[in-house]
Each structure stands twice: as structure tokens, then as C-alpha cells.
Amino acid sequence: EAGVAQSPRYKIIEKRQSVAFWCNPISGHATLYWYQQILGQGPKLLIQFQNNGVVDDSQLPKDRFSAERLKGVDSTLKIQPAKLEDSAVYLCASSLVAGEDGNTGELFFGEGSRLTVL
Amino acid sequence: QKEVEQDPGPLSVPEGAIVSLNCTYSNSAFQYFMWYRQYSRKGPELLMYTYSSGNKEDGRFTAQVDKSSKYISLFIRDSQPSDSATYLCAMRDLWGNNRLAFGKGNQVVVIP
Question: Which residue in chain B is spatially nearest to A103 when comparing CA positions?
Fold first, then answer.
């Protein structure tokens, strides 16, 4: 079974530039998550989709971050304009719906996209 | 007060030692408790999953949950160099749309 795919793996940009990250979840997983992991910290949820609808985006800085999941499969996360404090690893994860058919809702993570803002 | 507290200090142990990690939390609604392992430059992967209080053992790994104290632990017996990674605790409540609250993680180095 293929895992969660993310690209690019690494990106270096200057502040005020824009960047986009792409995620392809595990086939059949209805729920998709974008997490931000700053060095030395645990992942912080930015946005959660179920199919192509947003479930939780309460911690997404909406003045500069946007995300979409067209057709309920792939997703993109965009940052425009980037700030120095956006330097982090952006992790995409997917899961089955927790509680359905006894699923635990285990999150499967991709390898992440490492962003450096100079 | 953060929802989940995990002292992020690195931990170096000799091969074969027991590794003990723990987290405390403040939200009494948390019902599901997890430990994720994250190798360098990789995404986290689920290591242990526990519902409510009690112990769970899987090979060299034991997870403990004490809901009365809001305290969870992970023990690694007979540690191996391949256990060198960052260990993140995570938890969620019954109704939280599967939103996980993570600790900061502990970097563990097992020295051969």
C-alpha cells in the first residue's frame, strides 16, 4: 500500500515570497490533515479536511495560509507571503474516519516538506 | 497551561537500558492516548495506541495511562540503537474530530 506522498521535500525561499506544497493521501482515506512542525516542537494542526470539506481550520493563519482539497483527494497548502517564522516542516497526514467500522482514526504521515524562509 | 506537557530534553542511554518517557495533560476529556516515533527527516509513525486507563504491551514497548493523575508513560526495554528517534505523545478526546494534541517530543539516542 502506497503511503502519503508529499512534494517538494525541501524548499528555500526569501521572506515575502510564496510557496505551495502538495499532498496525495493514502487511497480511500477520507480525512486529510496539514500539520506544521517547528524545530524542537510537536506537530500543530493547521487544517483538517473530511473529503473536500473543512472540518477544522481554527489554527490556520488565514491572512497568509490557504489550503484546498479539490475532488476530495489531493491537497495543496499555500503560504503567501512567507515570513521567517514560517520556517518549519509541513506534514501531511491522512486517516480513515475515526469510529467508523471500528477504525481508530490512526494518522499516517508523509515525510514532510521542509521550508526554510530567509 | 498547554494541553499536553512533555519535557523535550534529549535522552542518551546505553544499549540495553530501559528508556522511560512521560507526558502530562490538562484536558480530562482526553480518552485516546498515543505514542508516535519520528526518525530524523521522516514523518511520525504510530507506535502505541491506548484507550482510557491501563497498560498495553507490544514487544519491548509498554504504554501506561493513569487518567486520575493525567499522566502517560512509555517504556522501552532492552533499548537498541534502532530505537534512536524522537518520541511524541499525542492524545484526543472522544468527540474531537480526531484532532490530536501533541507533546513537544523527546529525542532519544541509544549508544551502542
Answer: B98
